[in-house]
Write a structure and sequence with these properties.
With 307 residues, this protein is an alpha/beta fold. It has 10 helices and 8 strands.
């Protein structure tokens, strides 16, 4: 081994930054429409929740660009419900990321629910569950939806290969979940190389950390502006413009609430989710306002209707 080798030379030789980027340069990347950030709301579980989102968004004159839906698994909606959901979202130009099932925590395994087992992550357990998940993926595509939430890197590779081969729609897109637990430039670059179309890193990364990730990746980063309580309850609304400037393109995730366990189960009354959705849309409108206050030059993507 060469005595001149250092951690910095190892990282630099692989095209990675040698430190988090405290210079905080402005990102050279944007969405195709020139926007530096977009708004994302999770927990849109049913058609009535989507209707509530649209009503509240109109009231606040704010466009929610992307929604994360069916947190308990698209399995819990029948085909008719999925098709109606897909049609209404498409009519309003909203990008939908569907959560297929099963996955750890939502199948028959219990390790993930234990105090220490939670650290193992929500990977897909066994080949049978990969097969069942692919059944749900095909069902999602058949309903007209194209976005998938992906937690397992192996499954991401399978899906990307299927997309390349033409086995699934060419316009399918894959968002890697925060539950995959990635938090540095090397990890996010691996996900991008595996076919990820956007990545949700862990929610508490600093701006220098996010800037370092952006320096070697091009995919949009999905960053929590408000985090549900069980994940720390962080609120980064005032910081949004500064994050978007250095990490663009960014989807800001608006996700207040108690916990995933409470928010994403198939038997909760629709009215519960409707109330949460209204709060989330209101917070999205506030984020837009605060971002324009802090830095009017950090532009949000327009709605499709606005061009």
């Amino acid at each position: 081994m060469s005595t001149s080798v250092t951690p910095e030379t190892i990282l630099a030789a692989q095209g990675l930054p040698t430190a988090d980027d405290y210079a905080l340069p402005t990102s050279a990347r944007t969405f195709a429409d020139g926007g530096r950030f977009r708004l994302e709301v999770s927990g849109v579980e049913r058609l009535s929740n989507l209707e509530s989102l649209l009503t509240e968004a109109k009231r606040h004159d704010v466009f929610v660009h992307r929604i994360i839906s069916f947190g308990g698994g698209a399995t819990l909606l029948d085909k008719g419900e999925l098709r109606a959901f897909a049609q209404l979202a498409a009519e309003n130009g909203i990008e939908v990321v569907a959560c297929p099932g099963p996955r750890a925590g939502w199948d028959s395994g219990r390790q993930l629910t234990s105090r220490e087992g939670i650290t193992s992550g929500k990977r897909i357990r066994g080949v049978d569950n990969i097969r069942y998940l692919l059944h749900d993926v095909l069902r999602i595509f058949d309903a007209g939806l194209r976005g998938l939430l992906v937690i397992d890197e192996g499954v991401l590779d399978v899906l990307n290969t299927a997309r390349t081969r033409g086995d699934i729609p060419a316009d399918a897109f894959f968002k890697v979940s925060v539950y995959a637990g990635h938090a540095n430039p090397a990890s996010v670059r691996v996900l991008e190389n595996l076919g990820a179309d956007s990545v949700n890193p862990v929610g508490d990364l600093s701006r220098p950390m996010l800037s370092a990730i952006r320096s070697v990746t091009s995919v949009p980063l999905d960053i929590w502006a408000i985090t549900f309580d069980s994940f720390g309850g962080m609120t980064r609304l005032w910081e949004a413009a500064d994050i978007a400037r250095v990490a663009a393109p960014v989807y800001f995730k608006i996700e207040p609430g108690e916990s995933e366990e409470v928010m994403y189960n198939g038997y909760t009354d629709a009215e519960f989710h409707d109330r949460l959705i209204r709060h989330k849309v209101r917070h999205a409108a506030i984020l837009r306002e605060l971002a324009s206050t802090v830095d009017p030059g950090v532009r949000m993507s327009p709605s499709p209707a606005a061009g």
